[in-house]
C-alpha cells in the first residue's frame, strides 16, 4: 500500500469532507472513498543512489567515471502508474550533483524536480538528499539523469512506468521488454571537457563514441567483446524502450531488416505507426514494437548522428548492438557469422527526421486549451559574446575572437550562484531573479534569414516568466539562423505539452495557424524544434513551482539556452506547492 500517499490524502480529508458536507451530496463521499481505494493498490518504492567514481573501461582506456551505485548506465527503475518513489541520493563524488526525473510531472513536488539552482541547491560532496514524488497518470518510458554540469554524460538510467495493476497496454502485450539507452562517451573526463570550453569560449570537443546500453559496439576499438546483445524468439513481439541519453547529439536509430511500430513517446501513448528509422533528440523517448519475423540470424541495431548545424563539428561514428534470434544457426568450423548491417540516413537528412517527428498523433481526441491566456513567442538560437575588455585571447577562441553564447528571446540564462530560484521565490528573497523575461522578442527580425550581426550578442540574465495557476499557455518556439541554424530539442520541466504544429522558416500567424492540429496532437515533454523552423506548443499551467525550459543539448544550456516559468499557487491547498523537505540541500 502507498501509505505516504494515503496519509497525505487523510490529512486533507477535513478539506474534502467539509466540501462534501456543504454540498450535501452523497456522490461526493463516494468519490472520496473511491480515491482512497484507488491509491490503496499503489506502492511506495525505496531506492538508494550512491554517486561515486568507478573505474570504467571503454575504447581501450579506463577512466574514473562518475556513476550511480557503480553501474554505467545506472539502475533501471520500474514502477506502476500511481506509485510513489522515495530515492535517497548520497554524493560520494568530488563534484556537486542533483538528479532530475526527466518527464515526471512532479505535481506540487517541484522540490524533487532536480535542476541545479532552479528547484534546489546541489548536493555537495559528502551530502545527501531524498527525492520523494508520485507518478500520476503517466505510463511508458521516462528516464533520470544528473542535472549538474555535464555529469549526465554517465549518470543516467531508465524510468519505466507500467500501467496500474490490473490494467493493460493499449496494444498487444509484448513477450519481453528491453530498455535501449543511447549515450555518448568521451575518452576523457566530461567535466574537464566542458570546463576547458568555458575557459576558452570555444565549442567543446565532440564525443569519441556513441553507446547502446553503455557499450560502443563492434565498430570501435577494444569494444566488440562487450557489444550489447538483445535476444528475440522467432515470431515473438518485443517492446524496445528507446531513450536518447546522449549529451549533445540527436540520433537516428534503426534495426537491420526490421520494421518498428511506434506506440509511445515521452510516457504518452500514440496512434501506432510503422517506420524503419527513429530520430530522437536528447531527452526524448520512443517505445516501439519489433517482431521477430526475419530469418533467424544476428541483426545490427545502430545509431548515428543527425547533425543539422551546417559546418559544426560532430561525432560521425556509429554505435551498434545486436538483435540475435535465439535459434540463430551456430558458426560452422569456426567461421564467424557477421551480423547484418542496416541502412542509416545521411547525417544531414532533415527530410527523414521531419517525416518521423511529424508522424506522431495522440490515440484519440484530446482536451486541448483553446481560449489562450498567455501567448508567447520565443526565439531559440545561438549567439556570440564579444571578448571582455582586458581578457586574453586564450579565453576568446570562438569565431573572430568571441565567446559562444545562446539565448531565448535574446536573454542568455544565468544560473544563480547561491540560491535556487524556487527557494528564493518561496522565501521571498530579493535579488536572485527577476520576472521580466520578455513574452516576445524585443526586436523583430528575419529570424531564419541573414541576421544582422548587431543582434548576435545576447544579454545575460536570470529572468523568469510568471504564470497564474490555471493559465492556458501557447508558446511559439522560433529557431534562428544566428551563427548557424540547428535542430533544438526543447524540454519543459514539470509538464507535458501538446505539439500542435511545426514548420520551416519564420512562423506566420496569418497563415500558419491553419496548420494547427487541434484534434489529436501528440503529447510530449521534449519537442524537436526544426532547423531554421518553428514549433507551437500548448499546456495548462496547473502545477505550481519554477519550471525550467531549455535546449537539451547540454552544450547549449551551458551557453544559456534556457528560461524558466514561475507558476503561482492556486486557491486551494491542492493547487499549491508543498512545503520544502527538511533535508533540502543548502547552498
TrEMBL record:
This is Laccase. One of its GO terms (cellular component) is apoplast. Pfam families: Cu-oxidase, Cu-oxidase_2, Cu-oxidase_3. GO terms for biological process: lignin catabolic process. Its EC number is 1.10.3.2. Binds 4 Cu cations per monomer. It is an enzyme of class 1 (oxidoreductase). The gene is LOC107762767. Lignin degradation and detoxification of lignin-derived products. One of its GO terms (molecular function) is oxidoreductase activity. Keywords: Apoplast, Copper, Glycoprotein, Lignin degradation, Metal-binding, Oxidoreductase, Repeat, Secreted. Belongs to the multicopper oxidase family. InterPro entries: Cu-oxidase-like_N (IPR011707), Cu-oxidase_2nd (IPR001117), Cu-oxidase_C (IPR011706), Cu-oxidase_fam (IPR045087), Cu_oxidase_CS (IPR033138), Cu_oxidase_Cu_BS (IPR002355), Cupredoxin (IPR008972), CuRO_1_LCC (IPR034288). Its main location: secreted. SUPFAM superfamilies: Cupredoxins (SSF49503). It is found in: Secreted, Extracellular space, Apoplast. Its cofactor is Cu cation. Coiled coil: none annotated. It catalyses: 4 hydroquinone + O2 = 4 benzosemiquinone + 2 H2O. Residues 51-165, 177-327, 443-569 form the Plastocyanin-like domain.
Amino acid at each position: 500500500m502507498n501509505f505516504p500517499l494515503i496519509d497525505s490524502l487523510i490529512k486533507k480529508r477535513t478539506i474534502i469532507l467539509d466540501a462534501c458536507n456543504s454540498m450535501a451530496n452523497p456522490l461526493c463521499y463516494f468519490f472520496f472513498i473511491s480515491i482512497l481505494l484507488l491509491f490503496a493498490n499503489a506502492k511506495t518504492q525505496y531506492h538508494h543512489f550512491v554517486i561515486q567514481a568507478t573505474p570504467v573501461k571503454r575504447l581501450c582506456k579506463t577512466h574514473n567515471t562518475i556513476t550511480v551505485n557503480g553501474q554505467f548506465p545506472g539502475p533501471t527503475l520500474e514502477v506502476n502508474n500511481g506509485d510513489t518513489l522515495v530515492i535517497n541520493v548520497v554524493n560520494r563524488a568530488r563534484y556537486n550533483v542533483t538528479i532530475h526525473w526527466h518527464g515526471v510531472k512532479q505535481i506540487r513536488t517541484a522540490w524533487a524536480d532536480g535542476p541545479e539552482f532552479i528547484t534546489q541547491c546541489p548536493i555537495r560532496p559528502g551530502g545527501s538528499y531524498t527525492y520523494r514524488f508520485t507518478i500520476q497518470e503517466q505510463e511508458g518510458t521516462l528516464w533520470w539523469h544528473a542535472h549538474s554540469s555535464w555529469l549526465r554524460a554517465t549518470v543516467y538510467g531508465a524510468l519505466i512506468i507500467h500501467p496500474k495493476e490490473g490494467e493493460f497496454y493499449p496494444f498487444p502485450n509484448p513477450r519481453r521488454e528491453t530498455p535501449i539507452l543511447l549515450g555518448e562517451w568521451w575518452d576523457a573526463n566530461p567535466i574537464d571537457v566542458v570546463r576547458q570550453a568555458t575557459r576558452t569560449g570555444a565549442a567543446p570537443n565532440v564525443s569519441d563514441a556513441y553507446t547502446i546500453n553503455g557499450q560502443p559496439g563492434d565498430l570501435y576499438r577494444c569494444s566488440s567483446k562487450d557489444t550489447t546483445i538483445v535476444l528475440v524468439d522467432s515470431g515473438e513481439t518485443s517492446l524496445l524502450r528507446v531513450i536518447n541519453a546522449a549529451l549533445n547529439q540527436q540520433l537516428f536509430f534503426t534495426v537491420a531488416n526490421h520494421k518498428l511500430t511506434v506506440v509511445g513517446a515521452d510516457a504518452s501513448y500514440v496512434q501506432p505507426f510503422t517506420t524503419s528509422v527513429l530520430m530522437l533528440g536528447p531527452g526524448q523517448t520512443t517505445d516501439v514494437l519489433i517482431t521477430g519475423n526475419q530469418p533467424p540470424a544476428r541483426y545490427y541495431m545502430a545509431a548515428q548522428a543527425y547533425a543539422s548545424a551546417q559546418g559544426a563539428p560532430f561525432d560521425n561514428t556509429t554505435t551498434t548492438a545486436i538483435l540475435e534470434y535465439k535459434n540463430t544457426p551456430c558458426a560452422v568450423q569456426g567461421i564467424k557469422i557477421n551480423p547484418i548491417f542496416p541502412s542509416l540516413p545521411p547525417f544531414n537528412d532533415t527530410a527523414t527526421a521531419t517525416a518521423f517527428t511529424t508522424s506522431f498523433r495522440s490515440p484519440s481526441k484530446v482536451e486541448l486549451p483553446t481560449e489562450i491566456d498567455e501567448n508567447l513567442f520565443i526565439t531559440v538560437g545561438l549567439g556570440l559574446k564579444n571578448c571582455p575588455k582586458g581578457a586574453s585571447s586564450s579565453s576568446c577562441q570562438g569565431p573572430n575572437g568571441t565567446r559562444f553564447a545562446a539565448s531565448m528571446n535574446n536573454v542568455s540564462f544565468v544560473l544563480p550562484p547561491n540560491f535556487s530560484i524556487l527557494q528564493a521565490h518561496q522565501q521571498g528573497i530579493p535579488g536572485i531573479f527577476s520576472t521580466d523575461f520578455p513574452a516576445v522578442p524585443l526586436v523583430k527580425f528575419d529570424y531564419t534569414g541573414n541576421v544582422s550581426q548587431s543582434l548576435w550578442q545576447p544579454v545575460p540574465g536570470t529572468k523568469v516568466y510568471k504564470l497564474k495557476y490555471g493559465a492556458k499557455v501557447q508558446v511559439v518556439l522560433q529557431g534562428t539562423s544566428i551563427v548557424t541554424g540547428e535542430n533544438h530539442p526543447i524540454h519543459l520541466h514539470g509538464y507535458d505539452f501538446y505539439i500542435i504544429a511545426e514548420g520551416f522558416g519564420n512562423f506566420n500567424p496569418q497563415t500558419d495557424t491553419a496548420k494547427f492540429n487541434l484534434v489529436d496532437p501528440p503529447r510530449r515533454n521534449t519537442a524537436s524544434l526544426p532547423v531554421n523552423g518553428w514549433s507551437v506548443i500548448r499546456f495548462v499551467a496547473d502545477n505550481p513551482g519554477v519550471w525550467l525550459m531549455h535546449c537539451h543539448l547540454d552544450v547549449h544550456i551551458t551557453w544559456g539556452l534556457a528560461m524558466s516559468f514561475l507558476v503561482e499557487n492556486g486557491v486551494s491547498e491542492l493547487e499549491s506547492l508543498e512545503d520544502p523537505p527538511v533535508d533540502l540541500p543548502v547552498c
